[in-house]
Specification:
Number of strands: 10
Mean pLDDT: 86
Radius of gyration: 24 Å
Structural class: alpha/beta
Distance between the termini: 28 Å
Helix content: 40-55%
Strand order of the largest sheet: 1-10-2-3-4-6-9
Length: about 300
């Protein structure tokens, strides 16, 4: 990693997709064609040099947008090494949205690419909704599969309240704050009409910022028409200008490979000792423990954080 050292060691890997595809082609041609044809294929392959470069990144988002930890490092590497204005970036995006601040940071990373002068294409095969669409709208071009889900330009927050249950068991819950709106609604206290109204006001303000953000980067979109919280499938999304083209990411990359050098940039976590020894329990613990802890922290301390 470059600037932000992770708790678990990770490495950025670069894979030349042209070479990977050619290896598979060779295997097929070796099985099905004569030696003369195979040598001709190798000769033509050797001539393919000095192509413009395409860099492919993947972003698979969860509620917290935790993938941004690696995403920001991959983008920093691109900006530092690739040629802005010549090399292009394709991002395969999959996300149903999540916390505002997490997806705000993820979107800011794509803005870094645009500001540095890179042409950015975002491909959506399954879903880019809410915070996911906040990221997608920044691209120069959005390409989606015919049944991909897009839109959901809205804000939601769910806050369970256990105050009546506590009262039934004679449990007092006391909350001390400084500042009129330091805490608007809580999970355990009795929520006041004033607190609820303020919380709703904050949600509306967040929605307003979201709409302005989409409008800034996707001027061809009638934001008021689509900023209802609804989502649409690919073909309807194209009609509404939420996307520019209907294709899968596989089609996009295969089209680019013929005339460009295409590189996949991916971050991989280094295997722990337990993983190297084939201890499945260690693998499960490594992956589940952070998730469980994060979920517990979210419930206890971030229960009233709005989500996109």
């Amino acid at each position: 990693m470059l600037f932000h050292l992770p708790k678990l060691p990770a490495e950025i890997h670069v894979t030349h997709l042209n070479a990977r595809l050619n290896e598979q082609r060779k295997k097929i041609k070796q099985q099905n064609k004569s030696k003369i044809s195979f040598n001709f294929f190798k000769k033509n392959e050797a001539k393919a040099k000095d192509k413009d470069r395409i860099y492919v990144l993947d972003f698979k988002g969860d509620v917290q947008a935790s993938a941004v930890a690696n995403f920001r490092e991959e983008i920093t590497l691109l900006i530092a090494t690739a040629k802005a204005g010549q090399d292009r970036v394709v991002i395969r995006l999959e996300s149903p949205g999540g916390m505002v601040h997490g997806y705000g940071l993820a979107a800011a990373q794509i803005i870094r690419l645009r500001d540095a002068g890179f042409h950015v294409t975002i491909c959506v095969d399954k879903v880019a909704a809410s915070g996911g669409y906040m990221m997608a709208c920044i691209a120069n071009e959005i390409i989606a599969a015919p049944f991909a889900i897009l839109g959901s330009i809205g804000v939601v927050a769910q806050v369970p309240n256990f105050n009546r249950l506590l009262k039934e068991h004679n449990v007092d819950y006391e909350l001390y704050t400084a500042g009129e709106y330091k805490r608007t609604v809580t999970m355990f206290g009795e929520n006041t009409p004033e607190g609820k109204a303020k919380f709703e006001e904050e949600l509306q303000q967040t929605h307003k910022l979201f709409k302005h953000f989409v409008e800034k980067y996707r001027g061809q979109l009638d934001v008021e028409k689509v900023a209802t919280g609804e989502h649409w499938y690919g073909e309807d999304a194209a009609t509404l200008n939420l996307v520019d083209k209907l294709k899968t990411s596989d089609e996009v990359i295969l089209d680019l490979i013929d005339h460009h050098d295409v590189y996949l940039i991916a971050t991989r976590s280094k295997p722990t000792l337990g993983e190297k020894l084939g201890l499945q329990a260690a693998q499960i613990a490594d992956h589940i423990t952070p998730v469980v802890l994060n979920k517990a922290i979210d419930v206890l301390s971030k229960n009233n954080v709005p989500s996109l």
